[in-house]
Amino acid sequence: MDQWGAWRKAQASGSGSGCVEMRSHTDGRREVRDSKDPSGSILAFSRFEWQCFIDGAKNGEFDD
């Protein structure tokens, strides 16, 4: 049985072509891919890695 959820993209992406999608595993892992190339490479993150990234994004650590 596949324990991965459906691929999702942010609502802010709208119908644009520059979208990134993510999906969650029941154990907390996350995967990210380019929605324009769904058969292309997938980046995988542990629960801890994903949480560190999200915390950094929320705190503005990646803002230019």
Give the N-terminus to C-terminus distance in angstroms. Answer: 42 Å
Q: Round the mean pLDDT to the nearest integer and report it.
A: 90
Structural class: alpha+beta
Q: Report helical residue fraction.
A: 10-25%
Global shape: globular
Strand content: 25-35%
| Lateral strand order in the biggest sheet | 1-2-3-4
Task: Say how many strands there are.
Answer: 4
Radius of gyration: 13 Å
Tell me the series of helices and strands, N- to C-terminal: EEEEH
Biggest sheet descriptor: 4 strands, antiparallel
Tally of DSSP helical segments:
1
* pLDDT < 50 runs, ≥5 residues: none
Region (Disordered): 1-38
Biased composition (Basic and acidic residues): 22-37
Organism: Catenulispora acidiphila (strain DSM 44928 / JCM 14897 / NBRC 102108 / NRRL B-24433 / ID139908)
Protein name: DUF397 domain-containing protein
Summarize the structure.
The protein is α+β, with helices and mostly antiparallel strands and 64 residues long.
